[in-house]
Amino acid sequence: MPPDTPDWKRLELIVADIQRQLAPNADVRHNQWVDGRSGRRRKLDVTVTQMIGAYTVFVVLDCKRRKRPAELKDVAAFAEQVHDVNGNLGVMISGSGYDAGARAVAAKYNMILQTFRDAGTSDWQQLIGEKAWCTITGVQLNQVSVSASLSASDKPTPIPFDTTILDDEHAEISSIKQMFWDAWKELSRPVGDITIHADFGGEPSFVRYNEAFVEITDFDATATLVAKLFPVNLHFAEGKVLENIDASDPAYRQLVSESFEWRRVMSEQPSQEVSPEEYKKMMSDSRFVVDLKNAKNWLRFVVTQSKAKSAT
Fold first, then answer.
1. Mean pLDDT score of the chain, rounded to an integer?
2. Which residues pair with 196 in a beta bridge?
3. pTM
4. pLDDT digit string (tens) for 103-142?
5. How far apart are CA 123 and CA 140, in angstroms?
6. Residue 226: which region, alpha, beta or left (left: phi > 0; alpha: psi -120 to 50)?
7. Cα 95 from Cα 113, distance rounded (Å)
8. Helix, strand or coil for residue 119?
9. Distance CA 265, CA 85 (A)
C-alpha cells in the first residue's frame, strides 16, 4: 500500500488481507456498503461472507486505530450496527486495547475483541527460537561429458556441454546445457551419477562443429551431481500480531526475516554435502521447497501462524 496511507485505513487493509489468508474460500470485502433493516445505509470496514453447509455466515469486522483504548460507547455502537445489518458475528480490532466498559458490552452481546500490534523480537523468539536457520540447497555439477550423434560422423562424438542448438536457419533454439537441466527437473532433480538422453524427434537441429554447421539427432549427457547445504542464520525484521484479548495465544501472527543475498551465501558460505537419500527426502517435502531459478538475488522468509494452521 502507498506509504502515505492513513493509519486507520492501513489497519483496515491489513485486517482484510489477514482474513483472506485465513479464509481463502470466503468473500472478504473492504468498505462494503450494506442496507440495514433500520433503513440506514451502513459502511462496514471489513466483511467476511462464507457458506457453511446450506447457510450463509456474515461476519462484520470494525477497526479502531486510535491512541486511546476503545470505550463502552464504541463497542455498543458497533453491536447495534452488526444487529442492523443482520451480522452473525461482530469482531472489533483495536490498536490500543479496550477499557472495562468495552469488555463488558462485548461479553453481553457475544462479540469478539481483538488487538493489533507490530510484532517484536520476543514474538520471533517465541515462534522460531533464539536462532532461526534456513538452508539453501545447491547442486554442483561434476565430471560432465556429452556424446552426440552428428551427421558429420558415423559414431558418437564428444561435444562441449554448453553447445548451442540451432534450427535449419542457424538461429539459436536451445543448448545442450539447457536441455540437460530441463530433463533433470522432469526426473525430479536426482543427484549422484546420472545420464540424460535427449533426441530431437525428427526436427532438423544443428550444432557448430569443426567450423561447420552439422545436424544433430540425439545426445547422451553423463554427469555426477552433488547436493550441498548452505546454512543461513535468519534475523527478525518486522511483522504483525492479531490477538484475542481473552487468550494468551495470538489469533494470527506474521513474522518477516531480514533479507539476504542467497547467491552470495552459496559463493561464500561453507557447505555440507548431502547424500542422495537425504536430498531426495528433503525435496519430497514441498512445503519447504522453493525453486530459486527465477528468484531475485535478495530473499527473505515470511512465517505465518494462526489458530487454524501454521505455514512457512
1. 90
2. 221
3. 0.72
4. 999 999 999 999 999 999 999 998 888 888 888 888 889 8
5. 37
6. beta
7. 11
8. coil
9. 55
The secondary element (H helix, E strand) that includes residue 219 is strand 212-234
Give which of 177, 169, 172, 163 is closest to 208, Cα–Cα: 163
Q: Are 286 and 311 in contact (CB under 8 A)?
A: no
Task: Write out the three cell numbers for 84.
Answer: 442492523
Q: What is the rounded CA–CA span in Å between residue 148 and residue 168?
A: 18
Local structure of 283: helix, strand or coil? helix
* Dist. CA 94–CA 296, nearest whole Å: 36
CA distance 128 to 132: 6
CA distance 35 to 43: 9
Task: Kindly give the interhelix angle for 100-108 and 72-84, rounded to the nearest 10 degrees.
Answer: 20
Report yes or no: 80 and 44 within 8 Å, Cβ to Cβ: no
Q: Which of 117, 94, 123, 114 is nearest to 255 (CA)?
A: 123
Q: With the C-alpha atoms ordered 292, 296, 299, 300, is the resulting torsion angle positive or negative?
A: negative
Q: Are strands 310-311 and 302-306 parallel, antiparallel or unpaired?
A: antiparallel
